[in-house]
Amino acid sequence: xxxxxxxxxxxxxxxxxxxxxxxxxxxxxxxxxxxxxxxxxxxxxxxxxxxxxxxxxxxxxxxxxxxxxxxxxxxxxxxxxxxxxxxxxxxxxxxxxxxxxxxxxxxxxxxxxxxxxxxxxxxxxxxxxxxxxxxxxxxxxxxxxxxxxxxxxxxxxxxxxxxxxxxxxxxxxxxxxxxxxxxxxxxxxxxxxxxxxxxxxxxxxxxxxxxxxxxxxxxxxxxxxxxxxxxxxxxxxxxxxxxxxxxxxxxxxxxxxxxxxxxxxxxxxxxxxxxxxxxxxxxxxxxxxxxxxxxxxxxxxxxxxxxxxxxxxxxxxxxxxxxxxx
Length: 326
Ligand SMILES: [Zn+2]
Ligand SMILES: [Zn+2]
Prior knowledge:
Elements: H1 20-23, H2 31-43, H3 47-52, H4 65-77, E1 79-92, E2 95-106, E3 109-110, E4 113-122, E5 125-134, H5 172-187, E6 192-194, E7 204-211, E8 219-232, E9 238-244, E10 252-258, E11 260-266, E12 272-278, H6 280-292, H7 303-321
Antiparallel strand pairs: 1-2, 2-3, 2-4, 4-5, 6-7, 7-8, 8-11, 9-10, 11-12
C-alpha cells in the first residue's frame, strides 16, 4: 500500500508524478503546466521555484532574492488555498496566456482572485512574465481586457545592433504595433520602449512621461509616441542618473546625458512637432533614440566600465538565450 499525496494543483494526480518533477528542476512542456506548478509551489511554500520561473523582465522580478523569497513565503504562509480553476489557456510560439481563478482566504477573509498571466518561452523553458488582475470572478470575463504583449529582444539579439529604417506611412498595422508596444511597456513597468526592442527595426519609440514628484517615487503620466525623431540642440550641461533597459534585464548603471534636447518628430496622428525636453524626459528620449541607431546604454558607459561589464553581458545573453534567465 502506498500513501497517496494528491497534487495541490488540483490535477487529481499524485504530487510525485505531477508538479514535483518541476519543483525538482524538470522544465514544464507548456505554460499551463508551469502555471499549475507555480500555484502548487505557492501552496507548498516553495519560494525558490517562484523565483526561478519568473521572467527577468517581469515587474515582480527583483535582484534582492532574499527579500523577494521572504515576501513570497509570507504570502504562502498567510493564505489558505482552496482551489485552482483554469479558465483559459492560449499559446502561440514563444508566448502564452493562462487565465485562472485562485480560491483562497487570508486571515479568515475571502481573497479569491482571477488573473490572466502572461508567459514567455526563453530557449527551452517557459517563464512567468506578468499578470493582469481581472475584474470579478466570472469565467465569461476571460475574453475582455486582453493584453497583447510583444516578445522582447534581449542583449545579444542582432536587431538591437541594427540601424532602424524610417517610417514612410502611418498605416493601421503601425497603429496596432504602437498599441502593443504601449501594453508591453506598461506590463514590464518600463517608461520607454523602442521598436527594435520588440523586433521591429523601425524609427519609432514610445515614452510614458515621467513626472517628478516631491516624494522619491516617480509617477508615470501620459504616453508620447515618437515617429522618425530627430534630435538636435543638445545642451552643454550634462547630468548623470541610473538607467536600466528591458532588453538588458537585471542591470542598471549611471549614464551621463545632456540635460536638454530638442526633438522633431511625428505623432501617431501624422502631425509634426518640435519640442524641447528636459531632465528625465530628455534622458528617456536619448536612451530610446539610441536604440534606433543600434546603441545600447551600456555602449555609453566609460570604456573601462564597458571592459569590466563584458563577461557579465556575455553571460546574461547566454543565460537568456539558453532559457536559464536566472
Ligand atoms: Zn500538480
Ligand atoms: Zn533600452
